[in-house]
Backbone:
């Protein structure tokens, strides 16, 4: 069976922990989109880790972890993470990389940086990891597939020459930066070949066999619905689809194999980077208090270290996010963080030019939206360590059930702490 773990909102929902938890009963975990521009923070018996490329199932010795064809593959970061976790006592994971995955090149990262500099105050808030230039090249058909590393030098140099001709025009006339050199790019590709060769595999064929053998497979998504380039807060989005539906494309499996979609929803809201954020807390003291208490060690980007923008739970955004993902189960995370509040504001609707709606509008309408706030009583205690739903404080259960009713999808998992074991099943 295939289960997808995806985010409902802006990312940062806690997908890493949920994937890590579900991976205990999985055979294969697959990253199917995105790159090293976002991270998953995981805390377990080996320590605390921020993964950017590796799937979150790498901490189990019975799993195979796969980088799918839909991923923006940064080979130095992937190999660096393998060295990092094994250096901290984690058994070396079994890793496969799709021969159809494409590689983030050093110039993609430079172009990302140059463009953000050029845009100045109108920048997209990019993590400058090269993701947008990478996907632009992929769809312009000038990206490099892993399989091409094993082609002849003659064929590679022909492609490199074409890439340099195009890129150097921009470098010279738009960005006024040093030009790309063909031999240096070839040497970069050969370095990547040496690093990645032990992991390369026909992933689609491998997964076809695994499905026929009845293996349990987890698809691990990056970011969330609202960062999807088609259905998110365009243009302040990422460059690959963040939806479970894309899992079949980015992993190379039939769409009908995805039987379960676990959508991770945070008990409050947070976001890194630019974009509309209706439920954002505008009082910086209130926002900073939630930020400091949030997550495990505070709400700061796992990749960038940037302080996350903080907000109250957003019903329209979360309901929409779950709907687009095709949610079968909701995992409700970081609920324990809210235990300090006397009352908990919830954004239950949007006011768009005087019209009250619980639907999530397009960005042009979203810019005009104001939050409609309802306040629920807090529970004023620490809920970490509680294992049974009925043992949660009454007001805590009321909060969960209020959210469940409003978004219209069943909350089957409640995370009440940072550890792998801090999960309540309903």
Residues:
């Amino acid at each position: 069976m295939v289960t997808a773990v995806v985010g409902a909102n802006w990312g940062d929902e806690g997908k890493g922990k949920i994937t890590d938890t579900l991976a205990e009963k999985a055979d294969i975990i697959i990253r199917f989109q995105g790159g090293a521009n976002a991270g998953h923070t995981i805390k377990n018996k080996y320590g605390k880790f921020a993964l950017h490329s590796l799937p979150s199932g790498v901490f189990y010795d019975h799993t195979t972890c796969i980088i799918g064809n839909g991923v923006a593959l940064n080979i130095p970061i992937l190999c660096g993470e393998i060295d990092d976790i094994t250096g901290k006592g984690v058994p070396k994971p079994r890793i496969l990389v799709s021969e159809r995955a494409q590689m983030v090149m050093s110039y993609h990262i430079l172009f990302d940086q140059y463009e953000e500099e050029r845009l100045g105050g109108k920048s997209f808030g990019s993590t400058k990891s090269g993701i947008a230039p990478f996907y632009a090249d992929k769809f312009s058909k000038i990206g490099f597939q892993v399989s091409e590393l094993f082609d002849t030098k003659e064929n590679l140099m022909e492609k490199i020459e074409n890439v340099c001709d195009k890129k150097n025009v921009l470098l010279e006339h738009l960005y006024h930066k040093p030009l790309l050199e063909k031999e240096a790019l070839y040497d970069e590709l050969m370095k990547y070949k040496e690093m990645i060769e032990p992991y390369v595999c026909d992933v689609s064929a491998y997964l076809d066999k695994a499905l026929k053998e009845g293996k349990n497979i987890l698809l691990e998504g990056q970011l969330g619905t609202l960062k999807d380039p088609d259905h998110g807060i365009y243009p302040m989005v990422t460059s690959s689809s963040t939806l479970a539906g894309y899992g079949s494309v980015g992993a190379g499996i039939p769409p009908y194999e995805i039987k379960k979609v676990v959508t991770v929803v945070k008990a409050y809201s947070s976001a890194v980077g630019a974009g509309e954020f209706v439920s954002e807390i505008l009082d910086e003291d209130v926002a900073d208090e939630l930020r400091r208490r949030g997550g495990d060690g505070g709400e700061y980007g796992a990749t960038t270290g940037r302080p996350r923008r903080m907000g109250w739970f957003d019903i329209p955004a979360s309901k929409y996010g779950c709907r687009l993902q095709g949610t079968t189960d909701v995992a409700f995370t970081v609920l324990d963080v809210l235990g300090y509040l006397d009352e908990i504001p919830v954004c239950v609707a949007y006011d768009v030019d005087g019209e009250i709606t619980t639907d999530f509008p397009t960005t042009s309408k979203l810019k005009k939206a104001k939050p409609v706030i309802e306040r629920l009583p807090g529970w004023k205690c620490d809920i970490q360590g509680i294992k049974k739903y009925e043992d949660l404080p009454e007001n805590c259960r009321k909060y969960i059930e209020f959210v469940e009713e409003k978004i219209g999808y069943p909350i089957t998992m409640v995370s009440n702490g940072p550890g792998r074991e801090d999960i309540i099943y309903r």
About this structure: The chain has twelve helices and 20 strands. The mean pLDDT is 93. The longest strand covers residues 343-352. The radius of gyration is 22 Å.
